[in-house]
Design a protein that fits this description.
Elements (H helix, E strand, L loop, with lengths): L1 E4 L10 E4 L10 E10 L1 H8 L15 E9 L11 E5 L8 E4 L4 E3 L6 H5 L2 H14 L7 E4 L5 H12 L3 E6 L2 H9 L4 E4 L5 H9 L3 E6 L6 H6 L1 E9 L13 H4 L4 E4 L2 H7 L1 H16 L9 E4 L3 H9 L7 E4 L1
Parallel strand pairs: 8-9, 8-11, 9-10, 11-12, 12-13, 14-15
Antiparallel strand pairs: 1-2, 3-4, 3-6, 3-15, 4-5, 5-7
Helix pairs in contact: 3-4, 3-10, 9-10
The structure holds NADP nicotinamide-adenine-dinucleotide phosphate.
Length: 323
């Protein structure tokens, strides 16, 4: 088998693709032939040594994969050779095969490609957790999505439309906004040249109910100011790099709330609830309420390009490695 190996912490260019012995399942494990591995911001943090968890060197990065089960160990129940599955494996996903335990797996709906499945869990579960359990977005409300052409942003557009909200998508270019319209956004705002607060207030008829913010920096405050009475600002991430400071008088006014969203920590602390969340979100794919877009594919050998394109703002949407 082939695997991307981090022998030395640093930039993605440090990564090497190496031959490794083939895998065999231990008791309670399955082996999955990886058809695609999702590339996420956190993979870059692991490789740079900037994540809170620091695995010993050398390690194989990559958490999210999708593929086909090729071997089943004794006592691994619920899955058979030939099943198409997606899995969150922690580390080891940037490889042509991985070992996983059944509780890390889910069956892939027939209509979903392996590439889309490998890019699914982090984006769509974050959104389902943020909007379904933290901000409680409901039908008839209006949501403003920042960085809306990105991985979690596109998922937020689709989830918002699926539950009956009006979705205002905001992004930095017209090309990115075209993808937001294709994903179902009702209104678009180009915050490179439009005033975000004014445009969002106008588009919502006075103030948005929910803001979904994975970008941060100088966008968070105007988005907070664009919220109406009982507005909820979901803090998802800081893709522009800087963590903004907010004027708390703007939270007091109109009885607004700022809502923290840490899906990863919640999922680790509540694994059963996370499995239910994943199953519910995959069911929305099976019934056609969510249609995850096809990510950009890179061959395994181009892992450094995939990670650099993601970290340096050249990628639009999600990326996967194809072994
Ligand atoms: N809280 C959680 O549980 C959770 C879960 C998943 C992800 N996250 C975080 O959410 C953030 C977004 O994730 P994602 O998968 O949507 O990432 P992404 O697709 O790479 O980025 C989202 C958007 O942010 C803007 N952006 C990205 N990189 C940038 C850069 N270097 N400089 C300026 N703008 C940049 C882009 O929007 P525009 O160009 O249109 O502005 C992009 O479409 C990340 O920080 C990630 O770690 C958090």
């Amino acid at each position: 088998m082939r695997a991307v190996v981090c022998n030395e912490l640093g930039p993605p260019s440090n990564l090497a693709v190496e031959e490794r012995p083939d895998l065999a399942p231990g008791a309670g494990e399955v082996v999955i032939d990886v058809e695609a591995a999702g590339v996420n911001f956190v993979d870059g943090l692991f490789v740079a040594g900037e994540y809170q968890l620091k695995p010993p060197l050398p390690f194989v990065p990559g958490n999210e994969i999708a593929g086909t089960i090729s071997a089943v160990g004794d006592g691994a129940r619920g899955y058979s050779v030939g099943d198409r599955v997606l899995a969150s494996v922690g580390l080891g996903g940037f490889a042509s095969a991985v070992v996983a335990r059944p509780n890390a797996l889910a069956h892939v709906p027939d209509q979903m490609s392996s590439a889309a499945a490998a890019a699914f869990t982090q984006s769509y579960c974050t959104v389902a957790f943020a909007l379904g359990r933290r901000a409680n977005l409901v039908a008839g409300e209006t949501m403003l999505v920042l960085g809306a052409a990105g991985g979690v942003g596109t998922a937020a557009i689709q989830y918002g439309k699926a539950i009956g909200a009006t979705v205002i998508a905001a992004a930095s270019s017209d090309e990115r906004l075209e993808r937001c319209t294709a994903a179902g956004a009702d209104v678009t705002i180009n915050y490179s040249h439009e005033d975000l607060k004014t445009a969002a207030r106008e588009a919502s008829g006075g103030g948005v109910d929910v803001v979904f913010d994975p970008v941060g920096h100088d966008l968070t405050e105007p988005a907070l100011r664009a919220m109406g009475e009982f507005g909820r600002l979901c803090i998802i991430g800081f893709a522009r790099g800087d963590i903004p400071k907010l004027p708390t008088n703007q939270v007091l006014l109109r009885n607004r709330s700022v809502v923290g969203v840490d899906w990863g920590a919640w999922g680790m602390a509540h694994p059963r609830e996370q499995r239910v969340l994943l199953a519910d979100t995959l069911a929305m794919v099976e019934t056609g309420r969510l249609s995850p877009p096809e990510p950009t594919s890179y061959p395994l050998d181009r892992v450094a390009d995939a990670l650099s394109d993601l970290l340096e703002h050249r990628l639009v949407g999600k990326a996967v490695l194809v072994p």
